[in-house]
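User: Show me sequence and structure for the first protein, then do the same for the second.

Assistant: Starting with the first protein.
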Amino acid sequence: MAFTSTVSGGPVFRGERVVSTNHQKAWDGSEWYTNAFLGVYDWFALGLHCCFFWGCSSKRILDLYNQHVSGNHLDVGVGTGYFLDKCRFPAEIPRLVLVDLNPRSLDIATKRLARYRPETYCRDVLQPLDIGGPKFDSISITHLLHCLPGDMDSKGAVFPNLKSLLNPGGILFGCTFLYDAEYRSLRASAMFSLANRMGFMSNKHDDLAGLSRHLENHFSECSIETSGCEALFRAR
């Protein structure tokens, strides 16, 4: 089935929707990010849910960005562009590239970040990302892995796909919710169960050991910190 995105500020994406099982599930999961949901996403997901359910404030994630974002940055799984809007870039006009499977997310983030004139690409991170141009000094994947279908071995394709886009010495950073989190509360367990049944999360098999193994397999340096159900990671 053909589809077209007309995201402002970036190239038009035109192509065939992926039909393999995992990639179709990735598309289906991204469909939850409607304009209505994205309109309340910052308050609902990054405010209420991060503190009340997941035990990690959005400020801690913003700190991760402020520590590692560069003036030559790629963000994959952009949401509403909240952290890119709030973080401190080390350059007045950074090179900023946005990648997401959902054109609605790209549209909202592109408008929010218009002052940086971002390039935008509608792509599936489970496949090699052909976006052209120079490589990046930093890449972020925030709240992406727990939305991707399959177990950590299936999701592990993300890491070599993104590593190939990093300059030598560049850093990949991000965060994800782990189903087996050591400090998972009863309300977090209930929300995980609901989110997985509804299909806007797919993390029943996501664990710290699996995340650590894939980072170590593809990067020479990596670290993971946990806060509640959140794992915040860095890798070079």
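Switching to the second protein now.
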Amino acid sequence: MHYDPVKDVFASAIKRFPFTRKIFYKTLDLMFLRSWYVRRELKNLRKLFGEKKISIFDAGTGYGQYSYFMKKYLLPNSIFAVDVKEKWIKDCREFFAENNFSNISFAVEDLTEIQHENKFDLIVCIDVMEHIQDDVKVFSNFFRALKKGGFMLMNTPSIFGGSDVHDDEDESFIGEHARQGYSFEDLKSKLEPIGFSVHLSKYTYGFWGDIAWRLGIKYPMQLLNFSKLFFILLPFYYLLTFPFTLIMMYGDFTSENSVGSGILFIAKK
């Protein structure tokens, strides 16, 4: 299926009703297990910088969900958030300005073409790299953009069932993906020659997390991709299924997965 049309529906909804945007962010943080992992590691990374004000590059900000989190919980900081979708950037810029967030700016940028040099302490790239064919070029751009001692945190599907691909005959669940996912070895082999070192690597969405993803995300998205009329039924669907989904997500979050359909990777310059 193609995920972008469904995402555009949500983007249009929160644009039309701006007061729902904060609720939408909280819903994303609750519903997506990757957000649990990402927010935990962002807090851990912030501690490494002490009281220093850090400069953050939100590379592929989307709805602005993680920029919003970082402006609240990773202070003091300045954030530069980019995306290739101009209308999403416009919406984020207006929302953050209306809510008087300081030291945050937005721009339309293609990550394969950025030219930042020694500018950021932290680069955050969530569920973006699986959409980009020339990933090594982007990783090189990230390395150049980071200050020495800076970190790049990325989250992406893994080769172990990421994008719901389990063998050679399977196609990606998400039609916009350029690759099925990454492994630890794959990322290490691409990043270390550039100059990065591995700070942390963690497989996410293990056995229970993968089931939770299917129940909480995949099946509803398939229905919405088929017909937007299913928006009406979503509250009833989640009323029945979400308690079970939440328990399975918590089990995954508190476990050490040997493999999983997602991977969270932190590299250091």
